[in-house]
Structures are given as C-alpha cells and as structure tokens.
Specification:
Elements: E1 5-10, H1 15-29, E2 33-41, H2 49-66, E3 70-77, H3 86-100, E4 104-108, H4 114-126, E5 138-142, E6 163-166, H5 171-179, H6 194-208, E7 213-221
Parallel strand pairs: 1-2, 1-4, 2-3, 4-5
Antiparallel strand pairs: 5-7, 6-7
Helix pairs in contact: 1-5, 2-5, 3-4, 5-6
Length: 223
C-alpha cells in the first residue's frame, strides 16, 4: 500500500476531531502521514491568551490519540479571520501545501461559522489543480456539528455527503479525542456533546451500510 500525505485544514481546535477525527485515526493507523493545520483559535482581543493555551493543550492531546503525524497552528484570532487580507491567508495555506505536498486534503464545509467559510474559500484557492495542486488526488469538505447543520435549508447550501468513510474501528478513538476538548464540548443534548457526535457517526455509517461513518462532500477527485 502506497502511503498518502493527508492534510486536514481546521478553522479552530476541535473542528478536526468533530469533522474527521475517525478518518484521521484510520489513515494514521494504516500508516499514512496526517498533517493538521489549525487556522485560528480563542485569542485576544475577544478571548484571553489563557483560553487559547487551554485549547492548544487539548488539541495536542487529541492529536496524540488520533495519531496525527504533524501539526501547525497559525494563531489567528477566532471570528476575526476576515481582518487578515485574503491574499495573506491564501499564502499561509499555500505555503503549507508547498511544504507538505499532500495527496488528500480535507477542509471545512462553508457553513454558519464565518471562519469556516473563509477557510473553505482559501483552501479552494490553494488546492487549484495548478503547480503543486496537480498532485492532489482528493479535495473534500467535512461537516462540523453545531455549525454545518445550522445553514438555512434551500436558501443556503446544505451539506449532502457523497462520500462516507467507514470509521467503525476508529469511533472509540474519535470520541476519546473529543473528550480532550473539555473547554469546548457540551453536555447532551448539546450539539457538540459526545452523544451527539456518536449519533451522527452512527447515522452516517448506516447511510452507507456500516456501523459508524464520517460524511464528506467530494469537491474534486482524480485517479
């Protein structure tokens, strides 16, 4: 089996686990190289630096559980990504692609959270099939509970997966990693509760004929 280089672009710490935690663990366990790029976090002026340090520690613990090979944090203030000139954000993401040269790229679906939409737009620019982008085999968007499902039906785009990754053997690690984010997850029936995440994984899995799954929307796939 040829090892793949997999890049996961996460707007904030915890989005990667919510959206593709099982897929990350599966790829890592199979020997592929997984790099998580986190764009922003709970930083001043809206949050205290201590808040960010807490989520940073939680993220690194979660990454260890999921088997992440490499991680990088751009440290832009959450909900203020729009203050960064778009060409600079594009360049930051493109630099990672140039250095890592991924074959698979996962990005957030453009949903209710403005950061998710901005990061999605920049990833679309960075992964164009020119230059290093010609080496990318799959670009896919993942869903994030508490944001993706709050788009207005039929007015805005709605997440409809056309690829479901079987994470039956990874669901326990996904939920273990999610529990690392004590500052972010909520009690049931909160949308970011462990129970809600497990329920979504069970639903996506049964849509495709297995126990647990993570839904993706394939943007581009070549073979």
């Amino acid at each position: 089996m040829t090892k793949k280089r997999v890049l996961v672009v996460s707007p904030h710490p915890d989005d990667e686990t919510l959206g593709v935690g099982g897929t990350i663990e599966k790829y890592s366990r199979e020997g592929h190289v997984v790099h998580v790029l986190t764009i922003s976090g709970h930083l001043p002026p809206l949050y205290k630096r201590q808040d960010y340090e807490i989520t940073l520690k939680e993220a690194k613990h979660a990454f260890k559980i999921l088997g992440v090979t490499k991680s990088e944090f751009l440290e832009l203030p959450a909900t203020m990504i729009s203050d960064v000139p778009i060409h600079k954000l594009n360049s930051k993401i493109m630099r990672i692609l140039d250095d890592f040269n991924p074959q698979i790229v996962f990005c957030p679906y453009p949903d209710r959270h403005i950061d998710h939409r901005l990061v999605f737009d920049s990833v679309m620019v960075a992964t164009r099939p020119v230059g290093i982008g010609r080496n990318i085999e799959i670009v896919a968007a993942y869903e994030t509970l508490s944001e993706t499902h709050w788009n207005a039906p039929h007015i805005e785009t709605n997440f409809t997966p056309n690829w479901v990754v079987d994470i039956t053997n990874s669901i326990d690690k996904k939920l273990e990693a999610l529990r690392c984010y004590k500052s972010q997850i909520s009690d049931f029936p909160g949308p970011r509760s462990v129970e809600a995440v497990e329920a979504l994984a069970k639903f996506r899995g049964t849509q495709a004929g297995f126990s647990y799954g993570e839904g993706m929307h394939i943007i581009r796939m070549v073979s």
